[in-house]
Amino acid sequence: MKTILIAFGCLTISFAVSAQLVSSSPVCPTFKVDVLAGNINKIHPKSTIGEVMKTFPCFTEKVDKDDMGCTWVIYANQGVSFFPARNYIEIRDNFKGTMEPSLMGKPRASLFGTLGNPKMKDVNWDAYQTQYGTLVVYYNKAGKINKLQMSSRGTDTMKLCE
C-alpha cells in the first residue's frame, strides 16, 4: 500500500512539473537597424511581405493592398513599419531596438560626418543618397531626428504611402 501511494505521489508530481505556460502571441527578435546598409535584421526594403512577417511575426497591423496600392506591416509598439510594395522601411522615434549608427534624437548638424551632404533638403527633412538607395531623415521642431525612411529607390522614383 505504501508503495502504491509513493508511486501515485510521484506520478502526480511529474504531471505538475511538466506543465508549462505557453504564450499565445508570437515573439519577435530584437530589431537591429543598420542604417548604412539599409536593413533591419537583414530584411531590406525590397523584401516581400512574407519575408518580413516570417522574420518578425509579432506585427500589430498588416494591409495587403489599399486604394493607393500600398502594402504594409506595422510594428507599432516597436516603432517600425515595412512598406514592401513601395520598397521602404520606416523607423519612428518610439523605436525599440538597436540602431547603428544611432541617429534617433541626434541634431541635424551632426549628420555630415556620418552621411555627408544631403542630395535633397527641405525644412523638415533631408534625403541622402546611399549604397542601397535613399535615406530620408525627418526632424522635429527642435531640429532633432524623429523619423527615418530607408528606401531601395532613388529620390526621383521613391513613392511614399500616406
Task: Show the helix and strand layout.
Layout lengths: L1 H17 L13 E3 L4 E2 L8 H7 L5 E3 L8 E4 L4 E4 L4 E5 L5 E3 L11 H4 L4 E2 L3 E5 L4 E6 L5 E7 L11
Count, helices: 3
The best one-word shape is globular
Strand order of the largest sheet: 3-4-5-6-11-10-9-8
| Uncertain stretches of 5 or more adjacent residues | none
Classify the helix fraction into a percent range.
Answer: 10-25%
Helices and strands, in N-to-C order? HEEHEEEEEHEEEE
The main β sheet shows up as: 8 strands, antiparallel
Strand content: 25-35%
Mean pLDDT: 89
Computed Rg: 23 Å
Distance between the termini: 75 Å
Judged by helices, strands and strand pairing, the structural class is alpha+beta
Q: Would you report the number of β strands?
A: 11
Can you tell me about this structure?
There is one protein chain. With 162 residues, the chain is α+β, with helices and mostly antiparallel strands. It is 17% helix and 27% strand. The chain has helices spanning 2-18, 49-55, 112-115, and strands spanning 32-34, 39-40, 61-63, 72-75, 80-83, 88-92, 98-100, 120-121, 125-129, 134-139, 145-151. The strands form two sheets. An eight-stranded antiparallel β-sheet has the order 3-4-5-6-11-10-9-8, with helices on one face. A hairpin with a 4-residue loop joins strand 5 and strand 6 (88-92). The radius of gyration is 23 Å and the shape is globular. The termini are far apart. The mean pLDDT is 89.
